[in-house]
Amino acid sequence: MIRFAAIAVAFLLASLSHAAPADRVDPSQPTLRSPEDLILSEDGQFLLTANRGTGTISIVDRRQGKISSEWRIGQSIVDLLPLSDQRFLALDSGANAAILLKQNGDVLDILSRVQLPYSPVKSDVSSDGQQICVSCLWPRKLVSLSLTGDQLKLQRELILPFAPRVVLFVPDVQSILAADNFGGRLAIVDPNTFTVRHVREFPAHNIRAMALSPDGTKLLFAHQLLNSLAVTNENDIHWGLVMSNELRWVPLGHVLDAEADFYGNGFMHPIGEPGKGGGDPTDIAVIDDLQAVVSMGGTGQVGIGKHEAFGLFRVSVEEHPTAVVVSPEKDVVYVANGFSDSISIVNIEQAETIGRISLGSMREPKLVEQGERLFHNARLSMEGWMSCHSCHTDGHTNGLSSDNLSDQSYGAPKRILSLLGKADTAPFGWLAVSDTLEEQAHKSVETTMHGRDLTDEQASALAVYMKSLTLPPPIDTLQATRNQAAVAHGRQIFLRNNCIKCHAPPHYTSPEVYDVGMHDKELNRAFNPPSLRGISHRDTFFHDARATSLRDVFEVHGHQLAVELTDQQLDDLLQFLRSL
């Protein structure tokens, strides 16, 4: 009996150490996959897509030009990272997990899985294949994973001063680069100690992609740049002065040198030209040392550009391209279309789309999904320069200011507000000029973006999508730093100073406008108070972004406190605010 039990335990342990097959899915069943990432298999025969909408991975035989299989891996797969020995890593943002998989033709096996902090978004691997870095958006964390055999292990976590998205190992100089998801910051991290060497800052927001040139001398960025000095009128939009979209080549050595000006010493490909904008770049694929392709998620196009050659050869693909991959032969580019459940094939030399591969049957989008598509659609704006997502990155905010007619005047730029958790916080805008999100959608597209008139159905779809944008957990929860006693004391300070007059629970705002001793450049003095929920995820404050930290709101600007606070009282008040 004892011998039988020992054999049973040994069999169980052996079975746990072997790969487990993934669940096969029928691609003919109508759904919305929403491919978010795209990679080539190690042998170059297959393309694999990370499907955000279904938690599946689609395998496409690129030589046959058709879908081979689809596998359910998790809840929402957003990133794929090629490794060695036909293995790759998948990030599941729905289940907050990293999943190690092995591909054998059109079959996938799950090798191991590790739990991650909230909201993993991107990953990269060291040149020796033993260290993987994962960015986790809302906790502002990088995670270091070790890969030994077929086992993943979480080693260390690093908190950054910003919310990271794209991460990139630079093998020759032993560095990891981590780019800001919302603003223009770049952290240079030591992969051995997993500490920040320094943080660079440059004029950018919405950094969606980074790539190294094959010779390792140049770093490529795809990002946007909002000019708060420009006015959102037809002239400034037409000339690309309000919102520019950029593919920028910069010397890698200048990036790593904390004293060097890498931005000024780089070369910029403008993604767009007067009359033909290129809103919302999403990905970069390097063709060779001098050529790269960039996808334009907002206009349904890709652009092929050569270093130090002005302009891009633009090619139309399908709706919302999210990822691009160059073939091993360097003759075509494969493009994952996020809202079309397809892969476009673009000939590099001819600069034209030559084929399409469907990922399977699609169902009709629901109203909230229609709104998501409109939100990311730069063709709603004049000449395609920007989408709603351009300023409200991932539904949040880039923290910058824009001079538009949302306050019924030009000349007074206002900080862009987050849309997360905006449902039930009417009226909207700094001057409370919109009573509903439908009304605000009309104003944003028609007055600020100078696009075509929205139909009421489109405005309703946008409003439904904006209402679906929920807040992430507070930063002190995500970073496990909450001090309950300090939060409770901070709440009492909040109440004693009558902060609830303007920021009333449960939404921590109110429908009125208030004079808080500030004015904009048009001498408006009464503003609608933004909700304090989710304030820990913001980096700038007040209508003109004059405060660059929550502490400065009180220490530097003395915002609406009835009495002067001690250092401890201020610390506790900030603890309470960060808990909302």
UniProtKB/TrEMBL annotation:
Superkingdom per UniProt:
Bacteria
One of the record's GO cellular component terms:
cell envelope
User: A Gene Ontology MF term for this entry?
Assistant: metal ion binding
SUPFAM superfamilies recorded for this chain? Answer: Cytochrome c, Nitrous oxide reductase, N-terminal domain
What are the protein's UniProt keywords? Heme, Iron, Metal-binding, Oxidoreductase, Signal
Q: Give the range the annotation lists for the signal sequence.
A: 1-19
Looking up Pfam families in the UniProt record yields:
CCP_MauG, Cytochrom_C
Tell me the protein's name.
Cytochrome c domain-containing protein
List residues of the Cytochrome c domain: 366-470, 485-580
What species is given as this protein's source?
Bremerella alba
What does the UniProt entry say about where the protein is found?
Cell envelope
